[in-house]
Recover the amino acids of this structure.
């Protein structure tokens, strides 16, 4: 069985590599567990990401960012959606 909490921790780490992104919250004990990320230069550009049991990273509005096999690309996709630049 996939460890979704570990996947979310890795996703948060990958999101932190983007200069314009700020990880606001890593809520691993909530149901569902999630990571909250925002564009550090905007108060309105933010997103909440969960990881489903199949290993897909999903935004709060249902967009699939990628899977646990390629966490860096999933975080890069979120950075693109939030208009952030890579570090």
């Amino acid at each position: 069985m996939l460890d979704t909490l570990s996947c979310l921790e890795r996703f948060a780490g990958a999101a932190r590599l983007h200069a314009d992104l700020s990880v606001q919250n890593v809520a691993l004990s909530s149901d569902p567990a999630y990571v909250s990320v925002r564009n550090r230069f905007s108060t309105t550009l933010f997103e909440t990401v969960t990881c489903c049991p199949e290993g897909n990273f999903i935004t709060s509005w249902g967009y699939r960012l990628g899977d646990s096999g390629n966490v860096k690309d999933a975080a890069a996709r979120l950075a693109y959606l939030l208009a952030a630049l890579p570090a």
